[in-house]
């Protein structure tokens, strides 16, 4: 039933509803009729007719409306909350908030701030102190002292996602020491949904700290988990963007290739099937344009993990090879360029010229815009 999903923060105010019959009686109460005294000059007024009439009693619908308004005011003062089992925490216990503020939390950070604000407002209504801990904070700088909701709100506003992974294992050890002698908290963990190690240890410590109280893990909805990105050069495919996912439902998106000045050079789509942890998107550009790419990013993902920067080591050079002898004349292992090719092929685009005339071979290679010319 709908009424079973509604709770009240101040249920004692509902006792005022028993006063509704008294309010009804007061609204319906009519003072006694005035005593009539005969006075002869009043006969002069008998012929006058009043254009306005005032009813002796309020209409029934107006009285009912006033009663309904009074009941609604009393109910509103009681603080109704929809679905209290999910939205409120047990009063009488202090609150421990653990927030994943690693790179994986950056893309959904505004939603996490809204959740923090809601939890701190409830703690203030319940008169609870709050301990606020970020898992990406170094364990040496971890501060888990209890704060008033107002102070905790100031600390939460200064909390920001870090461009690195969380330190869950170290945070678990620090919390185990800090709350060893003071269990019995309401514990809420705002998780980023990525297990980079230490998640199980942290969950075990938080359950012990709750000591029979409420322990909740709040994570992103399935299908909205953050994505990671790795860019790598491949001799067969060229520049490949590898998208990493924690799994979950099928997802689609796109990867943009940007120059050092922020110009969009290319955009390719990718698709992750259900449960798939990685996918590849090939960026097919001419070598000259491909070497201008300085940044790859997943469109719509605002986190450090969704960006991959390319430096000079990722650039693909075009190297010309010339030996001055036809390639087919010598055995493969005795070819002057065989071992040079084996050494360079994983890192460059090789251009060969088998013309026996070295002058013509060099001219042909330079005409193709090679960066390096190797003569054997």
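^ Assign residues to that structure.
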């Amino acid at each position: 039933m709908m009424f079973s999903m509604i709770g009240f923060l101040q249920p004692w105010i509902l006792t005022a509803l028993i006063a509704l019959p008294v309010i009804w009686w007061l609204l319906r109460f009519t003072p006694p009729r005035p005593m009539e005294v005969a006075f002869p000059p009043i006969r002069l007024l008998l012929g006058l007719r009043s254009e306005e009439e005032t009813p002796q009693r309020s209409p029934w619908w107006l009285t009912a409306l006033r009663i309904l308004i009074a009941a609604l005011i009393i109910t509103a003062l009681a603080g109704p909350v929809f679905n209290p089992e999910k939205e409120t925490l047990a009063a009488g216990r202090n609150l421990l908030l653990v927030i994943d503020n690693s790179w994986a939390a950056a893309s959904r950070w505004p939603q996490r701030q809204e959740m923090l604000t809601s939890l701190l407002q409830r703690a203030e209504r319940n008169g609870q102190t709050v301990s606020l801990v970020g898992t990406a904070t170094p364990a040496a700088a971890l501060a888990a002292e209890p704060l008033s909701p107002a102070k905790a709100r100031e600390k939460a506003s200064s909390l920001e996602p870090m461009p690195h992974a969380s330190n869950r294992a170290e945070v678990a050890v620090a919390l185990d020491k800090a709350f060893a002698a003071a269990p019995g908290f309401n514990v809420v963990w705002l998780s980023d949904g990525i297990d980079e190690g230490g998640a199980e240890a942290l969950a075990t410590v938080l359950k012990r700290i709750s000591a029979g109280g409420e322990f909740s893990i709040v994570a992103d909805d399935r299908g909205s988990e953050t994505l990671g990105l790795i860019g790598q050069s491949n001799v067969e495919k060229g520049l490949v963007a590898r998208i990493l996912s924690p799994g979950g439902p099928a997802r689609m998106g796109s990867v943009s290739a940007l120059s050092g000045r922020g110009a969009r050079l290319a955009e390719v789509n990718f698709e992750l099937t259900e449960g798939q942890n990685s996918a590849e998107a090939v960026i097919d550009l001419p070598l000259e344009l491909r070497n201008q790419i300085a940044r790859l990013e997943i469109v719509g993902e605002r986190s450090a993990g969704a960006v991959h920067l390319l430096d000079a080591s990722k650039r693909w050079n075009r190297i010309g090879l010339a030996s001055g002898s036809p390639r087919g004349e010598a055995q493969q292992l005795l070819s002057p360029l065989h071992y040079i090719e084996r050494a360079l092929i994983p890192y460059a685009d090789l251009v060969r010229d088998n013309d026996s005339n070295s002058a013509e071979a060099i001219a042909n290679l330079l005409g193709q815009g090679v960066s390096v010319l190797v003569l054997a």
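The two ends are 86 Å apart (CA to CA).
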